[in-house]
Amino acid sequence: MDKLGKILIGGIFAGALVYGLGEMNTFRLERKVQELQRACVAATEAEAKKQGTLSALTSIFLGKATCDPVELARSDGYPGIQGQLAAAERYVLRWANWPQISGIAISLMFCFPWLWYFFLRRIRELREAILGK
């Protein structure tokens, strides 16, 4: 196998490795969001039990206690566990597309030398066909 072929295969493997590591990180971040969401629900339920039934219903209808990570990520300024949940969800949303983008970019970057010399060979073949050699 020639040098360009090795670079091409190495680049594809490097892109696949970056993609795999990025997906593992995304999975880790999503798991952290799920853990924070469970902690938020537990804290909300504990607060509701402490306040009583009427206060719990009032807080539900007024929307004071929410543990939806997407809703929390859209707005800012939540204290405590809700703030941590919002920050973690924003980080997941920010990170979500990077493994695919970086994996493809690295693979393409390593493909350029191979493509360059491939097209140079085709141009040489075309020139020789035109000149009749």
Description:
The protein is an all-alpha fold and 133 residues long. The chain has one domain (3-131). Helices cover 86% and strands 0% of the residues. Helix 1 packs across helix 2 and helix 1 runs antiparallel to helix 4 (80-95). The two termini are 28 Å apart.
Q: Biggest sheet, in brief?
A: none
Structural domain count: 1
Taking all residues together, what is the mean pLDDT?
84
Rg from Cα: 27 Å
Q: Low-confidence parts lasting 5 or more residues at pLDDT below 50?
A: none
Measured distance between first and last alpha carbons: 28 Å
Helix content range of the residues, please? over 70%
What layout of secondary structure does this protein have?
Elements (H helix, E strand, L loop, with lengths): L2 H49 L1 H10 L6 H6 L5 H16 L2 H34 L2
Helix pairs in contact: 1-2, 1-4, 1-5
Compact summary:
This protein has 133 residues and is an all-alpha fold. The chain starts with a helix and ends with a helix.
